[in-house]
Design brief:
Its EC number is 3.6.4.12. The chain is an alpha/beta fold and about 700 residues long. The chain folds into five domains: about 80 residues, DNA polymerase, domain 1 (Orthogonal Bundle); about 100 residues, OB fold (Dihydrolipoamide Acetyltransferase, E2P) (Beta Barrel), CATH 2.40.50.140; about 60 residues, no CATH class; about 190 residues, P-loop containing nucleotide triphosphate hydrolases (Rossmann fold, 3-Layer(aba) Sandwich); about 160 residues, Rossmann fold (3-Layer(aba) Sandwich), CATH 3.40.50.300. The protein is built from 23 helices and 21 strands. It has a seven-stranded parallel sheet with strand order 11-12-10-13-14-9-15, with helices on both faces. The structure holds adenosine-5'-diphosphate and magnesium ion (MG).
Amino acid sequence: MRPPSLFPLFAEVSTLKGVGPKILPLVQKLAGPLVRDLLFLSPSGLIVRRPMTAANAVEGLVGVFDIVIDRLLVPGKPGVPIKVRATDDTGFVHLIWFGGSAQHIDRLLPKGQRRLVSGKVERFNNEVQIVHPDIFTPAQADEIAAVEPVYPATQGLTSRVIRKLAQGALEQAPELPEWQDAAWLAKRRWPGWRAALAALHAPTAEPDLLPDAPARQRLAYDELLAHQLALARRRRARQITPAPVVTPGEASTRVLSALPFELTAAQLQALAEIRRDLASGEQMGRLLQGDVGSGKTAVAALALADAAASGFQSALMAPTEILARQHFQRLSPMLEAAGVPTILLTGRDTPAERRTRLGALASGAARVAIGTHALFQDAVRFDSLALAVIDEQHRFGVNERQRLQAKGDPRTGGVHLLTMSATPIPRTLELTQYGELEVSRLTEKPPGRTPVTTAVVPQARIGEVAKRLKAALDSGAQAYWICPLVAESEASDLAAAEARAADLRRIMGVEVGLAHGQMPGPEREAVMADFADGRTPLLVATTVVEVGVDVPNASIMVIEHADRFGLAQLHQLRGRVGRGTAASTCLLLYGGGDDGLGETARIRLETLRRTEDGFEIAEEDFRLRGGGDPLGLKQSGFPAYRFADPIRHRDLLLAASDDARLVLGRDPDLTSPRGEAVQVLEALFDWRNDRPGAD
Ligand code: ADP
Ligand code: MG
């Protein structure tokens, strides 16, 4: 419910003075439909006007000249601008218009009249000139602002007009109760909300435009806090949904002792967090984040065993057939041995298999279902589903996850959700993208891994690379060879990959598999399976090497045109090797011909050479994009913030996240004075209707 104090801000922009039918669509497009949206439109620049004379005019700055109109020098015609000469005591100032009517200008500037003109000073043939000046009569002198904010303008809507409208919107802005913590606000020395908006629209110097200006920080924090509150609320809504109480039992112990290794400290920690949620009686929503090879599957296996031990069913869903099979092959022997009947459900089951398996799930004879998209289809019924584990969660839509979760028994409550991701992301991104989930991180890899030696090699030395590769293949190694998307069209990329595969087949004299994105799924999986089973020693692939595929014998990764990949992507690719006991190598080939390596590309490759820590790489990737790649950020799941910049306001984001938890923790119904103020803040930004992608 929207508090009445906000009604003026949630009025249509058309209610503002000066918004006629002609500019209405332009304003809506530029700012948004509401008065609030104009109020939240930040100036992007600043004009400082200085009084000047013809003699002391400074080129490039904006001057105000007190002049008398002398005469129309050039009346203008197509291709030639209109030119009016004016004078002050010190010399001439020429006023220029491209297009427009000389008659109109003559009427505006009658000979002998005094005017104040303002605009950016230029020099042409050593004469002072102003193109398209702003003109004021002496009576209007106090309308000339010494400092004026500049707004993003659009065709048909000048910055001037927007400024007037923004001022109108500001007049509609009420004083609102303070929602920020008093001590925090005092410490940051930020203005109150309304004062911050007034300052936003009235910058007096360049620093006022920077993200760390107090007013801008304050508004950014408000926005981040509102968003984090919305996410925290969703988290709470889930938490008050009852769900089956799941605790470890004998099956868990048996699976644990069947694992051929000891869990790492990170795995134990994540498992403890998951078990705390599962036993709480509240619905779990947790993301298990860990680099490729960090051992997420074992953690998931224990959660599946816990569900079985507590008398419930569970499901593990993977995005591809090959991954689902791999999970099934690894987990079902352990689960079965622990007395937990496990089935595989994929799109490739025969009708008879399918019928039997669906029957086993519905009757409760099967306790764990491992599978693909086949799992959430309508025909799939569970007897007592308590836990859904989703591997590579970003490969599924929100709907698909919800369809699986909806298969629980309403009498026992909601289905616990454990999602897993092998894409380490910076904490900032985690908070905005997954803010409503709890997060466990596997920050440590299982022991016994041989680090991958990474080398950065110019493409020109590809012949040498091939020679070394041949020697390695001859002694029984397996290798990936990655061809990126380099050409304009997919068809020619494909041709390049095919040509490369043919080259390598000839040079190496071995079977070479080729996997690419345009292959039908089953065909591609067959190629992958040949490689996984060691039938082909070398696999040429475009970027589609399946995430999560584990071929321990593969110890060499060659990536062509590595400089054209993103950092995170390179890290993912490299993660395919270094999984076995053999020492592994990753060769990053860069540049074609003699085009040098750009600075960012160089830092990327160097970062990769230096570290294998996915979280560190993610932070660095994030930082490198900070130079301005709003598109990239959007793609990585950032909501469209108006004031906040998740990179520059990183610290504010972390603080806002803590703050949101604290506020709701102390005052869940938001009835305290601060709680009530916080409700106004939430209504002001209205994140509920404005959701970023993932959950
Ligand atoms: P991911 O997190 O990428 O899904 P996996 O679960 O597939 O990683 O694990 C990668 C490999 O590491 C598997 O071969 C698995 O058996 C092994 N592994 C997992 N945990 C440990 C551990 N604690 N000690 C040794 N090996 C482990
Ligand atoms: Mg995995």
